[in-house]
Write a structure and sequence with these properties.
homotetramer, alpha+beta, six-stranded antiparallel sheet, Rossmann fold, 23 strands, Glutamine Phosphoribosylpyrophosphate, subunit 1, domain 1, 2 domains
Amino acid sequence: MSQAERLHEECGVFAIYDPDGEVARSAYYGLYALQHRGQESCGIAVCKNKDISHYKGMGLVNEVFNDDLLESLDGTMALGHVRYATQGESKMENAQPLVIRYVKGNIAVAHNGCLVNSETLLQELTKGGSIFQTSTDIEAFAYTIAKERLTTPSIERAVEESIKHLYGAYALVVMSAQKIIACRDPWGLKPLCIGKRGKAVIIASETCALDSVGAEYVRDVRPGEVVVVKDGEITSIDTYVNSRPTSLCIFEYLYFARPDSVIEQQMVHESRKLAGAYLSEEHPVDADVVIGVPDSGISAAMGYAEKSGIPYGLGFIKNKYIGRTFIQPLQSMRENSVRIKLNVLKSTVEGKRVVMVDDSIVRGTTSKRIVSLLRKAGAKEVHVRSSAPPFLWPCYFGTDVPSRDQLVMVGRTNEEVCELIGADSLGFLSVEALAKIAPKANCGFCTGCFTGKYPLDIEEDSKKS
Amino acid sequence: MSQAERLHEECGVFAIYDPDGEVARSAYYGLYALQHRGQESCGIAVCKNKDISHYKGMGLVNEVFNDDLLESLDGTMALGHVRYATQGESKMENAQPLVIRYVKGNIAVAHNGCLVNSETLLQELTKGGSIFQTSTDIEAFAYTIAKERLTTPSIERAVEESIKHLYGAYALVVMSAQKIIACRDPWGLKPLCIGKRGKAVIIASETCALDSVGAEYVRDVRPGEVVVVKDGEITSIDTYVNSRPTSLCIFEYLYFARPDSVIEQQMVHESRKLAGAYLSEEHPVDADVVIGVPDSGISAAMGYAEKSGIPYGLGFIKNKYIGRTFIQPLQSMRENSVRIKLNVLKSTVEGKRVVMVDDSIVRGTTSKRIVSLLRKAGAKEVHVRSSAPPFLWPCYFGTDVPSRDQLVMVGRTNEEVCELIGADSLGFLSVEALAKIAPKANCGFCTGCFTGKYPLDIEEDSKKS
Amino acid sequence: MSQAERLHEECGVFAIYDPDGEVARSAYYGLYALQHRGQESCGIAVCKNKDISHYKGMGLVNEVFNDDLLESLDGTMALGHVRYATQGESKMENAQPLVIRYVKGNIAVAHNGCLVNSETLLQELTKGGSIFQTSTDIEAFAYTIAKERLTTPSIERAVEESIKHLYGAYALVVMSAQKIIACRDPWGLKPLCIGKRGKAVIIASETCALDSVGAEYVRDVRPGEVVVVKDGEITSIDTYVNSRPTSLCIFEYLYFARPDSVIEQQMVHESRKLAGAYLSEEHPVDADVVIGVPDSGISAAMGYAEKSGIPYGLGFIKNKYIGRTFIQPLQSMRENSVRIKLNVLKSTVEGKRVVMVDDSIVRGTTSKRIVSLLRKAGAKEVHVRSSAPPFLWPCYFGTDVPSRDQLVMVGRTNEEVCELIGADSLGFLSVEALAKIAPKANCGFCTGCFTGKYPLDIEEDSKKS
Amino acid sequence: MSQAERLHEECGVFAIYDPDGEVARSAYYGLYALQHRGQESCGIAVCKNKDISHYKGMGLVNEVFNDDLLESLDGTMALGHVRYATQGESKMENAQPLVIRYVKGNIAVAHNGCLVNSETLLQELTKGGSIFQTSTDIEAFAYTIAKERLTTPSIERAVEESIKHLYGAYALVVMSAQKIIACRDPWGLKPLCIGKRGKAVIIASETCALDSVGAEYVRDVRPGEVVVVKDGEITSIDTYVNSRPTSLCIFEYLYFARPDSVIEQQMVHESRKLAGAYLSEEHPVDADVVIGVPDSGISAAMGYAEKSGIPYGLGFIKNKYIGRTFIQPLQSMRENSVRIKLNVLKSTVEGKRVVMVDDSIVRGTTSKRIVSLLRKAGAKEVHVRSSAPPFLWPCYFGTDVPSRDQLVMVGRTNEEVCELIGADSLGFLSVEALAKIAPKANCGFCTGCFTGKYPLDIEEDSKKS
């Protein structure tokens, strides 16, 4: 549990207040809609008559929970979480929400994000006698709030005060005996939204979770805002709001979020179509068909096709029976490894000049295999287009970008990578265009992984790990 | 295990001869590609030095098998199977392949299909002292072959002779100590194809399974043909070939098969696009966008859009984390039940006149819910189009069509159903058009579920069950 | 599934007719009491309104069944089974009861025992077109009954006629739509008893299963008898009764059966005490304490102590948390492997001359390790006594005796084995004494594994396998 | 996780230093031997090159761990734990060892016992900003040590200082990057011993765990002593040793510990025999046979028999296939519920005057059922003897004694209880005799549950919970 083990992660949170009960069931459907944000572990805590109980487990929401469990998690408030982590850290201890006893009783806490000053915080806290049982940031959140609670009149004020100490990207939700408190970091790096369904109030990482429980999208939690839900009333503490320009992770639009989600007024699918449209302007090509690499390349491909006038075609069928336990092919069959999950629709590409749109190109190996499959299926030309700019820098806020020596565009020219992946041409969306792909969103963006420029200073410790 | 329990099922088979071994692993990937044909149970039998061993289990291929199991299933021939069955019959006993000891040693048998004379066969066999341990047809196949083997010089001749007794739809594969024997019923109701990869020979329900193991599609097994694979040589017995007009199940093109599969030279995706194109000709409408209901309505929607000139749009996002154990919403949330798995992309349909293409309309309840979702998302008009004609009759060959009183189009006019599902207009592909959706296939089709006309007489017993 | 795979096994059967229902629950407790007879797999079939349903699984009774399953297995008759098998044959297919459809509908069959003419039967049956799906004898029973049923007026008559063809050791129970039929082989090699509880009638391998469901022991099924239970009435067919001298497996008393069971009027614990008493007469020794090797050496040790006047002591504590998945020690720790499951009570043996009574000595390796443990614990002398005579011959009736080259007493003198296991003296109960250990039982015994003399001729095929 | 949830528990700890490695495997066997002290959850932490990794799970040692896991837990030090808890608290979070990051890196902590000042400690700690994630005392231990470590030069000194704050019963083991530290509370309420095997040093709750790994018993950890194991060297800090009279829980001898364990020089089996002997002196009776209720009544029954001269007999057979998932009988069968797990050996008791010795009588219901079983089996008289005095008071140190209103002897005379359980006579061992049952142990005992006199003051908070 050294600092090196502390992981960057992408997660999903969902909280609900509903006087009519069935809150665990709502959380179940909400987390199911957010499953793409984390498949490693999940958990639901509920509050009934000021008493908090919870259940967590490794695996998908529909693997971990069953009817009996949901039945037993009775109450009028719930807080749920889905978690992603790289293989080595796949530990039950790290599952959220974290349910703790602190000075005022019990609370449950869950977050999506990554602190950049976590090592400093940990050292400070351990010097005061604190102990840490997980290898995630959530304990740093819990301790900070617990300490602030000693000198503040309420849990929401404790959360407000904690913002000063918590340096990084986060969407945080706390459930106490009587309230749900939601909070985004002042840069607004991670999304978090508010919904309503009758008397019920919902907090969720994405609006697709609101849709899944039949709730209406009200608004996003503002960067730096502390939202308090008590007995169905929504109030707000805005001490830390608007103090700086905001920086929503642009990769939420390009890759993370579900296409049907709306973030800061901007629907993700439309944003991806726009990325595809700008891509077609920046990197036009004379071709017969535009295809998208499933799943997240599809929207951009449709935008590219629409803008360029080249017909959109169904290029691939993806095997939908995905499972953690799928056995990888032996080395001798490795060439076919992509084909097992992704088969080319020969009739779409045979004898054609093909534009293949993907959401991004990271290591280049998958692109190379897909290009090869297209050629074997008879494509005359394969023009690869990435709706994200080249990955060149690390992310310190939760995106699990590989180290720079594994990024195919680091230290290579566009031509070299084009040759390496076997394409006839290769084009990336420009960083400039990124500013235009979410026109309805009135916020700024973090493009650190493409530009190396981050909205906040990164501690040396974080840089090392 | 009364006759009433005997089920109609849709299944997938995969067999391979490969002198280089690793046959269980190939079968694993082949079955994974065929997983859409059956998710209840699966099994793989292998033959090594004339010795047959096997493993079967309930669940998906990647749930049942692991590396150790595949390692232990060593040999140069394999026979695999995935099975679908309705809830009540979810029994381990019914998993295939069936491995039996008969007069000449051991064989493994597996099939896709449904006999219409199974009750007659069973009564005959039990009158001779036979016993039945499963509630599937596979034992009728096994017994018939075992009896014929007593008076024939080889296993392939026994299979050939069995065709006389086996009345119905089937794609059958037998693995003996030295051979793989593949056979389709003389009407050609169920698909089965042959592939090659170097010295290896593969038999599979669909070509997508050939693709997944890197094999080339050679040809389909002909209706009534018995194909023998021995030491890599493919020979054929054609006694029962061509004796009657063929009748491939048209629903393979419309729904069952994977879009990337080729059946009788015709790619399924193109066939569905053609169905959509004819649908647009037969039921045109003035609209702003064409959307498809995932997964199998997508191809037809693209065809409808292309032919009509109305833009194709992404109408829905389907949650991909599907699992057998997913908990259904309570009655109070039932209205939202579709939304949990299928969310509308508001930006695609808001304020628009929408053509919604689905692969078929069976009970009408799902269509009603989806239409309602589209309206809530702001669609001005919703025009429902089904790329299959109305279901009006039972299927006796393995498709699990509900009873007539549950079929929404039985006893109702088009207008009544249109109103019932809340659409602005409703159109079904005509039975006549079905004849044109697979132009490359030089075979006839069974359209019994739409027309009530079947390629072979149905026994009274089958009608009752 | 070659003949070589066909296994000798020891199993337990339990059947109940109870008009008040809850029969699956009764079967559950009955099988739990018989669990020592088979831990590999178990199953329960129930009959409700002439309809038979069932559930089987790998593992212990309390692992395979849960409340929901028992609830779903509703009816007024049940047939249950627990099965033992050596590792290689641990297959779901072999679990019993076997539920089959035959000429008159459905029946369930289960047995304990082993046919010696199974290979002959199989060859005959396959020559008639039969197929076999398991590697156990139960299908031979089922086929034979099914064939006889064609020419007999009832299922019980079919069972009666089957006795002519079924050559070997068996306790067989059949459940039809209306009856339970129980039958023992004419030599009476395997035990089977009848009990009553109010209106309920129970058939079980041992009386401990009657006790566990609160039933009274009525009598044993007689060798060759066919007992019919219909609507609570017990009738009997005795065509094959008393035609030959009976030969109950003596090892049931010495080892297999539970000490609290009564077989042929003789309580097993008392029989073991008698064996111990005769052992003390045949092999007296001057000693300070008599200890028994748990579990089945305890009773004999108490008998030895009582007869000899030497105090009985608790010599060992056996770890009771047994599980199939227990990890065996590495080679380097192998010396301690016995100690992990069996620890010596130092205070009982330290500085003493110890008589260590075990139920039998097979390979000698375990005895050697236990003697070594006793010496390390400070025993001055260790006198080993076996309450069974030396194993010298194979068993063809279901006991899994190792091959002769593994039997420590084959080809060695008593002195040689005594030295090999490190004992101060070694004594086995004589074959002659066996005749006296069950004085209340008025039946003869099979002592084939000690004498090589069997009550029936063994086919050459059985000898080979 | 209110105070009310905090549980009294009985647990087992095992730690090993072994330069030759395989420490997880040794811990596995050690915990297996200690399994009777806790079946709910278990865990093993290992230290390799100063790095600590661990694995925990719900269930028995042989259910939670497998070969791969043990292989992956590589190192030269290990700390293992088995835990017992009442049903409601069966949570993964409570499993031990607890692995934490604190000011000096990582440590693992595990304990057996119960603090009586835990609520006070918790309130103090939370007032300082601490948070608690479990509902066990182990976090109070961890925090206290972590805080003391801030002002002490070493982990062992931090443990030493912690003793001042930790008020209650405990056997505590800490594993740091370089050392194993073991410590018993100054009253010596919980047992803990030291063993050696070559260069390896072992710490364990009972000596049976030393035996299971082939280690020699060196001595017990002294009450109040802090034992430090570093690089195989054993050193000791005795600041808190001998400051008060010691008070080992007498119930370790009577019930908890395994009969083959030696605590404070006294073998448990001999102690129980002595208890039985004194019981026979205090409550003699004219009878024909003495039987013990398995498992822990056996030793005392043997002592009673030996002393009284009445023959010892095997009275019961206990079903050994115990499992957590065993289904309880329905109310209608409840009368037989004891019989399912415990069957009477009729031949032992029929027509006899029986002395039935049990380890204790708590609620009386089980005794009543067993007496009834004995009478049904034909016992002429049943004289019940308890080798423990009557339970009259709560235990604050980890024994899960029911509340006073459930204790059968509270508020009833001996005669009343005798009648209630249906016995002919009833006798309990006297509190006075307890002092004599462990003559080799030179320590005092806690008999609080019998006398209401405890070796340390109990806080009001503990009394309430």
